[in-house]
DUF5317 domain-containing protein
Amino acid sequence: MIGAILIAFLAAKLKGYKINLLFKSWAIYPILFWELLYWYMQLAIMQDDYSFVQYSEVLQKFYLLSFIILIIKYKQYYSAIVGSICIFIGSILNSIVIKVNGGKMPVFPSISYLTGYIENNDFYKIENIHILGSDSVKLKFLTDIFDTGFSVLSIGDIFIKAFVFIMLFNTIKYLNSNKIDGANAYID
């Protein structure tokens, strides 16, 4: 999700918003905790330690749930609804492609081979929902085809990550528009 976070920060900066206001409240730190844990898991995978993979779905749910603090504290209800619709659409798209491909999500890595994030035999080392993509894959455009070098995403995954972008960007926007005469009203 770091990509969605960085894109949200970049978009906010381009709009002239002060990103540092987000870090003056404790509300962002549970999200950052789960993000760091996710990155630790990614680094472990790159070192052939797959012990965390079995917990990845649960970790992702806790990560997304940690946004409840931002939603309530900064009244981001509309953003949460739009973001939740994105999660719903992404989940449906992922479910469709998994169903038509025998209960597995085909992955088409490219850059990840160069970064060392994925090796050909990684798909056989661990039992999970992902398999290496082939010519027999159905609905290839919905599979994991967007390789960032440290993750391979599907269109559904991108929709799910849009939630993170929407929540962070709109929270930063809210904090900037509700700043009281330069005084820091958001220190808890």
